[in-house]
Fold this protein.
Amino acid sequence: LKFVEAPRSSRSSPEPTPMAASSGRSSRLRAALVVALAGCPTSAYVLSSGRTVAPEVTNALRAALRAAPEAVAAEAPLVSRRDAVAGGLGTALAAFAAVCEVDASGGATAGGAYLLRAKERYNARVEAGVKDFRRVKPAVDAGDAATIGEIFVKDGSYDDLTAAAFLLSNAFRINSTQNPDKIPQVQKFKAFKAAADAIPASLKKKKMAAVQQAYAQATDLLDVYLDSVGLS
């Protein structure tokens, strides 16, 4: 793709410097977009910086490039920056804006789309489990082992809370290869779970003082976790 200055000047602009060959489909897509967005250096810089792009955004960007075949064909005529942006590349810019919009939503993997889906899927389960966990506080204070134990039965409220809470925290990864143990939200979840797991263990040993201590610690750590994932 070639660009020239507007007709008001007889001096031609230098052609964009070709990008070095890179491997992988995403790298090739970024290289194409940098060339396609010449004259928009800020957008080109961000796109070339290695940002993960959601699949739907990637498809939109590809469609934008296909929408201007005369601009990408080898025999394409020279166009001015003004005409290019006003024409087919305007669609590419709109698609790039979608990347920023998704990121602004608190995105993580795939530009935030994965995180948004995780919130839709797990938020309600986490909130329901938290409600049950907090509900037993009077029983903990009173030393009512039977009531406390209700939420810790196999496949009960606590098991569902921890399963959903982990999956939600894992969705905050910055890319698909990040070790879950390196994700701050996962770290906060595991700190809560370690404290909460001590509650049923102490119940079995009939150590109510230890149960109360573990519950108080787990409650504080649960609040820290919830704050990290945008819940309360």
Notes: DSSP finds twelve helices and two strands in the chain. The CA atoms of residues 2 and 191 lie 56 Å apart. The longest strand covers residues 3-4.
